Amino acid sequence: MRVIQWATGGVGRAAIEGILQHPELDLVGCWVHSADKHGLDVGEILGTDPIGVRATSSVEEILALPADAVLYAPLIPDRDQVAALLRAGKNVVTPVGWFYPTEKDGAPLAAACAEGGSTLHGTGINPGGITELHPLMFSALSSSVTFVRGEEFSDIRTYNAPDVVRHIMMFGGPPEEAMGGPMLGLLSGGFVQSVRMCLDALGFSRDAEIRTSQEVAVATAPIQTPIGVIEPGRVAGQRFVWEAFVRDACVVRIAVNWLMGEEHLEPAWTFGPQGERFEVEVRGDPNTFVTIKGWQPETVEEGLVRNPGVVATALHCVNSIPYVVAAEPGIRTYLDLPLIAGRAHPDLR
What we know:
Layout: E1 2-6, H1 10-21, E2 26-31, H2 42-46, E3 55-56, H3 59-64, E4 69-72, H4 79-87, E5 91-94, H5 103-116, E6 119-122, H6 133-139, E7 143-155, H7 162-168, H8 175-179, H9 183-202, E8 209-219, E9 223-225, E10 228-230, E11 235-246, E12 249-259, E13 265-266, E14 277-285, E15 288-292, H10 300-305, H11 308-326, E16 330-331
Parallel strand pairs: 1-2, 1-4, 2-3, 4-5, 5-6, 6-16, 7-12
Antiparallel strand pairs: 7-14, 8-11, 8-13, 9-10, 11-12, 14-15
């Protein structure tokens, strides 16, 4: 299957590596935002030997290029770009949205899918996996479910996107800027969809109320980080929470806990004895509690070179491509697709 990679940030670079390793996929194109990358062999962007595919900053070239799928991974999604790709007959897999859109929000893209005979699928880790796919999967082992949860505990120092961490996530700035910044709104676009998928798939009341919240922790002493020193009184930790309530009962909770380490914080947040991790919880008969390790690097230095959470996000997209290409046209979620699996190592096929 012929695949185009859209954007070559952390997720995009990991996705290209995954596409090159996947036995059913063939990289045929690559869109780049930077004019400096235009015309480069994709191998040069990755820092490897040439692979024979040249990057382009021309949307028109990408739209005209014959391909079965586009792995669309910019920092901020553009609905018009996605619609154009779908109308051009290209299936789109993306970690930046459309995990479970409402009928109203999805209508323009559903129309584009119908026009192009194409499929759109949103996937990833958080949102796009740990926050809806995994709670639903483990709920299959319980009856009378009363509560599900997906939660991340990560050291944000390992995220090698300094401009994003400083100027969008607002780490290192005053608390009032972070609380009034864009991050809660940007995140809610995906995480509210996760909450809604859990509510709908599990059959909770349609009158459930979704609430969002944000908290910050500040430095109590200078903290050395990859984005520079975080001075006392400046933001060094953030927690974002999305919860659904049926009357007074919380039935779905999704949360992310992002800290600049565990020292010199007020409040004195920590990751606890289990350290960085992802958690999935289901309360029912019986209860299920799952801790997932491995998607966070062992050290900050390792994470800045290759963050396994970023890689896992990319590979969830890559491994979805054959299933999305085979699906009926339209917006397809986890509830519409079969079990998605990776592929064996080349030496073991």
